[in-house]
Amino acid sequence: MLTKIGIFAVLAVTVLAVSAAAVPAPVASMGVVLQATHASVNGSPVANHATIFSGDKLATDNAGAVRAQFGSSQIYLFSNSNVSLSHTANGFAADLTGGSVLLSFAAGETFEVLADGAIVQSKSANQKTVAQISMVSPTELMLTSRQGDLQVTMGDETRTVTEGSSYRMSISPASQPGSSPAAQAGGTGATTFTLVAVGIVAAGTGVALWRAFESTSSTN
After folding, report:
1. pLDDT of 4 above 80
2. Could you say which DSSP state residue 99 is in?
3. Which residues of 35-72 are buried (b: 16+ CB within 10 A; e: fewer)?
4. pTM higher than 0.85 for the full model?
5. Residue 126 has what pLDDT?
6. For residues 169 and 116, what is the distance between their CA atoms, to the nearest angstrom?
7. Nearest Cα to 209, choosing from 31, 81, 63, 35?
8. Which CATH number, 1.10.1370.40, 3.40.50.1400, 2.60.120.1440, 3.40.630.30, labels domain 26-219?
9. What distance in Å separates the CA atoms of residue 156 and residue 137, rounded to the nearest whole number?
């Protein structure tokens, strides 16, 4: 038979094992904030070099901006912008709920931006991608590809935004005017969208801004 000391020893080991199993594993960080002005994470002010975790929400006010790095890729939030971030196998996903984001992704890394029910991502993971996505309204987006082709998906529809172009994306339920005849005939209630080219992307503020980010990221 076990002595009292032996019984206590077994109980102690069992309690320690159960306690250790109950402690949640540490959450790995996704990335780091490189620059922040009038910005917040999860509702609290965020400073340069702050760590970002999966599930964090970044936001900027009307005079704010924030730039963060994830691996070799970066995201920049313009003023009055909000995103929720989550980690993926080779990059990250961002749920854009307001404003505009500029993204730069290295070849081999991937991204997904969810906005107004649409998924925007690089068409090929083997290319570098620089893209800007803006929410104009709950039914309209502006999509710009400065480098690399983008793929836009909503429901069963997938279309391409070619490199160096900018498109206005209009979203309409199948039951409303502007939806495709096939969707209306099907009567499935699916949401459809149209892409209208609004011009060729010129070398301007967006490109200059991102080149400045890339040239200074190693110093942050």
Report:
1. no
2. S
3. bbeebbbeeeebeeebebebebebbbeeebbbbbbbee
4. no
5. 86
6. 10
7. 35
8. 2.60.120.1440
9. 22
